[in-house]
Amino acid sequence: MSVWSLDARSGERRREFASTSVEELGAVCRRAHELLPRLDEAGPQGRAAMLSAMADALDERVDALAAAADAETALGLPRLTGEVARTSGQLRLFAEVLREGSFLDVRLDSADGVKPDLRRMNIPVGVVGVFSASNFPFAFSVGGGDTASALAAGCPVIVKAHSLHPETSELTLAALQDGARAAGFPAEVVQLVHGREAGVALVKNPLVKAVGFTGSIPGGRFLYDIAKARPEPIPFYGELGSLNPLVITPGAAARRTEEIAAGLVASATLGAGQFCVKPGLVLAPADSGLVEAMAGHYTELGPQVLLGDGIRESFESGASEREALPGLRVAASGQVGGERQVTARLLTGHVSVLETTELLLEECFGPMTVVLAYDSEDELAEILATTPGNLTATLHSEPEEEKLASRLVAVMRDRAGRLVFDAYPTGVAVGWAQQHGGPYPATTEPSTTSVGAAAIFRFLRSVVYQNCPAHLLPEALRDDNPWRLPRRLNGVLTLP
Fold this sequence. Notes:
The protein has 496 residues and is of the alpha/beta class. It has 13 helices and 19 strands.
């Protein structure tokens, strides 16, 4: 068996890659496990230097990386060049996280005659498996947030390459491994495997202690169930599917219809609608004129190329199924293209259609937006409360609607991980305060994030040293604080 790199625009075969056998996967896992002590011994400063070197290596290869990814995904050179920069920036953020040191969460309680001496810190969980996303060949792939945060935590990483961009995956791996070598680390701190069989074996392997996944609900649930059915169940941090509702209040519709329509269409069709945070369901006041304003923008959209045949077929099937629903109509369509292209669609109806189907509460990956009209504030709040767990929820409102906005925000907070106000959810900033996660089915672990500094905590676990002799303590827990870490001493935060 093998995996072929395909041209996303023509479907032609470009290059063949051998699938990884179960036996080869076992050897990869053993090598990764052997490197755990090396990453641990390097300490935060050493791993920070490694991540910085990896970031430099990606930047040095940006043109070749973007060209390969464009051939395999058709996402366009400008978008992909920017994504490489985002990916290297993400690696540098985790280098900053390591140098700052609070990720270790060091807590020291002195013995007082009743309580023992307790010293608590975070340590790496072990080897981490990562499953690449189709729609972000860099930022959520081989060198993406799962890999960066796991390496920062001190965990060797094994990435299962996505079948829609295997060549991009190999080129990214080469850059990361060159960066590791430049910083004095073995190249195999990051390794790559190909093929479905290897992916399943990766989750089952007893040396793998956690998995990060970005993909579909069926694929994610399949692997999640395997992870939890192991003799030793492991954490499975899956990002699966998100509707990302966007709410427009009567006041916002009255004052900003044209502005919202333009921004909404741009957001919903960015990257051919293949963003995990695409606003997929819009709730707007009846007779607001929003659909008519959006329709003008939709008719100007050219034919769209999706990431692969399976995604294109799934979009066409999902769009046709939704178009056939009673009470729903096609308000506008983009331009029609060739057989390997899809047409953008704008569907509309009344929220009452949700009384007979839950299909509109499911994500449809691709360039389609559904706008449903509501008649009252109570109806809006009730419908919003029926939406499943989401990565994001967005509210467009006016200052004088504070009471309504507060009511809606309370509902949104229960259903989403990131609340967006008077803007659009596409574009997930990488920083210290970001939250990219939400209640199921958005993610399998809503208390965690896959983007931003806090993503590192997924791949750490806590250990307490009780009455430990000083000569056996790790450096992070020693009285003289040689790593100059922020620490909590008897409940009081102390800074170096």
